[in-house]
Recover the amino acids of this structure.
């Protein structure tokens, strides 16, 4: 018998390198919207997000077709590139 899961909820927390407070407050909403777009593009739904200066929390209902690790890696890599390209952090940014 095949079992399908439609609501796989995960609370993710991405922390900045060495938990340094490098995310600039005035860009917080743009960073949150970008991460929301990444989640939606990967067959998942974002329910809550908040970007702090040294970490980001977000709650996701993900598709069974993508693992937690794969989704976290896609979000981390994409958002890191986005933040660096737009200078949304103090200095070079790493998760």
């Amino acid at each position: 018998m095949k079992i399908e899961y439609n609501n796989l909820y995960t609370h993710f927390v991405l922390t900045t390198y060495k938990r340094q407070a490098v995310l600039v407050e005035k860009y917080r909403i743009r960073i949150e919207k970008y991460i929301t777009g990444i989640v939606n593009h990967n067959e998942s739904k974002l329910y809550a997000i908040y970007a702090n200066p040294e970490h980001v929390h977000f709650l996701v209902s993900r598709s069974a077709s993508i693992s937690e690790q794969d989704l976290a890696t896609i979000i981390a890599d994409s958002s890191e590139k986005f933040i660096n390209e737009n200078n949304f952090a103090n200095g070079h940014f790493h998760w």
